[in-house]
Every structure is written in structure tokens, then in C-alpha cells.
Amino acid sequence: MQVAALCRDESGKVLLITSRGTGRWIVPKGWPMPGRSLAEAAKQEAWEEAGVCGRVEEGHIGTYTYDKVQDAGYSIPIEVRVYPLAVKKLAMEFPESEQRERKWFMPDKAAELVDEAGLKKLLRSLAVPDGSPV
């Protein structure tokens, strides 16, 4: 299992970042961390991967799965629990700032850009039919 942060601003836009390996659009995610709740681990990943400072909620808002390719060439299925994070500010410099791009999107557009079906569904649930944030 991994944890992810769904980072949103006051207008309802979501922040996507590029993966380091393939450059695909994703949300910040990583492994649980000893001594931190799952939500706090998601918040830490948002800082390291996207430079996000904000408030995370302890309850996850959904899950999705993806196949994580291992160094040996095979892949394993991973369940990702997604935690909402209200973005207060973005740092210009952060641990992975030289390795990733980040960009704001309306939820429906973000859903078009990510590959994982479950994440697409979660992002689409954040928008009303006219494309406005909920």
C-alpha cells in the first residue's frame, strides 16, 4: 500500500506532478512512514515531490491501484490511499524540484491526464457537470 496527497487550492484546482521515470502526470505519493499517520506521510510526500505546504485531512477520500514496475522487470499491484490536502503555499525549492514538473488543473482536465482508472474516477468526482469545482 502507498499513500497519496490530492492537493487542491481555494479555486478547486488540483496539483499534478510528473513522475521521475516516465514523465507521466501523477499525484504526489509514496510509502507509509514509521512514526507518522498515513495522512502525515501523504503530506510529507507532497512536500518532497511538489513543494506543497498545507493542511491534510486524516480520513482518506478514496483509493486507486496501479502496477509498480520493479527493477527486476516484473510489476506488482499497489493500492494507493488518497488524502485531501488544502494547499496554503508552494515552495520554489523543495527536495525533488529539479526532477519534476508541477501544474494546476481543473479536476476534469486532471482526470484526462492521469493514467490510473481509479484516480481518473476520483478526480472526476470533484467536478460538477459544467466543469466547476464542487
From TrEMBL:
GO cellular component, one term: cytoplasm
Pfam families in UniProt: NUDIX
Cofactor (UniProt): Mg(2+)
Keywords, in A-Z order: Hydrolase, Magnesium, Metal-binding
UniProt cross-references to InterPro entries, sorted A to Z: DDP-like_NUDIX (IPR047198), NUDIX_hydrolase-like_dom_sf (IPR015797), NUDIX_hydrolase_dom (IPR000086)
Gene Ontology MF terms in the entry: metal ion binding; pyrophosphatase activity
Superkingdom in the source lineage: Bacteria
Protein name per the record: 8-oxo-dGTP pyrophosphatase MutT, NUDIX family
